[in-house]
Every structure is written in C-alpha cells, then in structure tokens.
Amino acid sequence: xxxxxxxxxxxxxxxxxxxxxxxxxxxxxxxxxxxxxxxxxxxxxxxxxxxxxxxxxxxxxxxxxxxxxxxxxxxxxxxxxxxxxxxxxxxxxxxxxxxxxxxxxxxxxxxxxxxxxxxxxxxxxxxxxxxxxxxxxxxxxxxxxxxxxxxxxxxxxxxxxxxxxxxxxxxxxxxxxxxxxxxxxxxxxxxxxxxxxx
Length: 198
Fold this sequence. Notes:
Blueprint: E1 2-4, H1 15-29, E2 36-39, H2 49-59, E3 67-70, H3 76-89, E4 96-100, H4 102-119, E5 123-127, H5 156-159, H6 162-169, H7 176-197
Parallel strand pairs: 1-2, 2-3, 4-5
C-alpha cells in the first residue's frame, strides 16, 4: 500500500496526515495489505514526510519490518510513481494499493491507469472509507520527530517557481524511460531464472 505524504511542521501531525496514516494502519490490521510504503520528502518543511508517517504507523502497531520509506517525492504523482518503484525494488510483486483521502485518490487515478498500461503495474485505488474509519476519534501517538529532520533543508517554494511546481504536480518529473528499463530488466532476470531452473 502506497501512502502519499503530507507536510509536518514539527509539533503535531495535520488532520490529513492523521487520516492517511490511520487508514493505512487500518488496512494493514484488516489484512488487506502486508506492507506500507510511506512516500514523501522534506518538501515544505524540514521533516521528511515518509519518515514522520512511518514513525506514527509504528507507534500505532505496524511492525517496522512492514514499513518502507520513500523520501524523495515532492509531488503527489511522484508519491505513487516512486512508491510503486520502492515496492518493486523490495520484491513486492503483487497488487499495489494507493491509500489516501478520496480527493487525492481521484486525482491520481489517471496516473495509476497510465502506470498499468506502460509499466504493467497492478494498482488499486483505495480511498478512505469514512464509515470504517471513525475520524472523530483518531488517536495521536507520541513520536520523536528528530530522526526525520533534514538539515540543509530549503523549501520547494524557494527552489522552484509556481509554474515548475505545477509541472511537477502534473507528473513532468516522472522518469518513465528509467522505469520501463528497470521493468524490462526485472522481466529478463525472471526469465533467466526460469531457464536456469529448468
């Protein structure tokens, strides 16, 4: 399950981050997913979003061995794209889910379809179901955010203009050629392993 990040300001998580993490933990505890990939770099604040979310998930009962972190993504499209690649790099070859709020999952549905066509990804969009997640009673565990603090941080607003950020949000930074090459390489390795086994 890939979970896109949300900025963390160093004191307490936002409602959106709280909802996304609790939803991913709920899916884990229900046996719907075996592993969670939290995705998000230090984009608008000096805290790496994926690391913060991972700390919260661990405190909510997900074993560290089932939490993967992708700390480079700066846009929602990169969260899904990079999160998928992290899952594949860790040998998770089954279906991939995108767990987030309904607005973001709807926004990323088109990218998920394109990834299915071009990368043969098998992606399910899994928006929060509010009848299953009582958002009024979500807990906030205590974490030490210092491990997610990134020194030398510069906000994306200072590094990029609005137009470049909008391009990133639309997926302009996704490296489709590299992803296709890596997929082809994995297929070749699998075929060679089959030939060797015979």
